[in-house]
Amino acid sequence: MLAYNKQFVENEGYKEYITNKYPDKKVAILSCMDTRLTALLPAALGIKNGDVKMIKNAGGVISHPFGSVIRSLLVAIYELGVEDIMVIAHSDCGACHMHSEEMIEKMEARGVNADYIDMMRFCGVDFHSWLDGFEDTEKSVRGTVDFIVRHPLIPSDIRVHGFIIDSTTGELSRII
């Protein structure tokens, strides 16, 4: 990847991607970090570099009211002119059916000290709400949309939409 990057810069491959920081479509998209969506999601929506602000994380969910996702949305709205938010989950998501206790077992198996996990619990980290996934993708989208709409720092004139994209075909289904 590093060798490719060197050639990319030397050959001025970046020129077709030059844009500014303001999203042309005034849209922020919250979506999953799934590798199948890297190229599929923009292709399925017909978006190009500069069109939208893209926020990606595991499951396309918000796990904390003042975490990095809400911070990114606030910057997109107040500093970059976003007017619409699209929450786009996808079929066959790895965060679906994910359980914090199983992840903690995997952490410990990889050498994370159980005392650190206990200390984090003592400090107030709720692993269940932070690391659990979801059981129903549509319900997760509805919950995330509702979370954004009800957030006290999100202005009421921001339109929030919820979708599920098929991770194979790219077909988008409106949820809310």
UniProtKB/TrEMBL annotation:
<dbReference type="InterPro" id="IPR036874">
    <property type="entry name" value="Carbonic_anhydrase_sf"/>
</dbReference>
<keyword id="KW-0479">Metal-binding</keyword>
<dbReference type="InterPro" id="IPR001765">
    <property type="entry name" value="Carbonic_anhydrase"/>
</dbReference>
<dbReference type="GO" id="GO:0004089">
    <property type="term" value="F:carbonate dehydratase activity"/>
</dbReference>
<feature type="binding site">
    <location>
        <position position="34"/>
    </location>
    <ligand>
        <name>Zn(2+)</name>
    </ligand>
</feature>
<feature type="binding site">
    <location>
        <position position="93"/>
    </location>
    <ligand>
        <name>Zn(2+)</name>
    </ligand>
</feature>
<keyword id="KW-0862">Zinc</keyword>
<comment type="similarity">
    <text>Belongs to the beta-class carbonic anhydrase family.</text>
</comment>
<dbReference type="Pfam" id="PF00484">
    <property type="entry name" value="Pro_CA"/>
</dbReference>
<protein>
    <submittedName>
        <fullName>Carbonic anhydrase</fullName>
    </submittedName>
</protein>
<feature type="binding site">
    <location>
        <position position="32"/>
    </location>
    <ligand>
        <name>Zn(2+)</name>
    </ligand>
</feature>
<feature type="binding site">
    <location>
        <position position="90"/>
    </location>
    <ligand>
        <name>Zn(2+)</name>
    </ligand>
</feature>
<dbReference type="GO" id="GO:0008270">
    <property type="term" value="F:zinc ion binding"/>
</dbReference>
